[in-house]
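Good morning C.,

I know you're traveling, so I'll keep this short. The sequence:
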Amino acid sequence: MSIKLFSTGGTIAKRYDELTGELVMDTQHIESMLKQGRCNRELLSITSLMLKDSLDMNSLDREEIKKACNETKVHQIIITHGTDTMVESAKMLSSITDKTIILTGAMIPYAFKFSDALFNLASAITAVQTLPYGIYIAMNGKIFSWDNVDKNKREGIFEERI
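The tokens, ready to paste straight into the viewer:
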């Protein structure tokens, strides 16, 4: 395995519950996404750390993510994460200097038509294999340094800080 993928929840993992009419997070779609994208499954090792909306994450959750990144021997890491606090989690990871870590997620759940999830995951898989050590965010067809990006909630995109 050359890439470690940690899933933490977020919109990318949500689906519509027909009984309650709510969005729920009870499954990870990573395997389906890799199959749909015809990604060589042997390339990645997947571990689910938690199933949380990033707005519900706290410092202990971020410490768990950081610990997992530090403990893996793999130097190429992808973290699927909710978009609302992705930059905050990236900041927590910024002291890790000997690995390439890409955080990615989705504005629309993978289970929904017109989701950006598959595109963002594919971008992260490519980026983690080509970028030098550092902490990055892969969203909207772009790769951002963690300390030069913000989520534009009005337009639903990530963009460089001005």
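Safe travels,
E.
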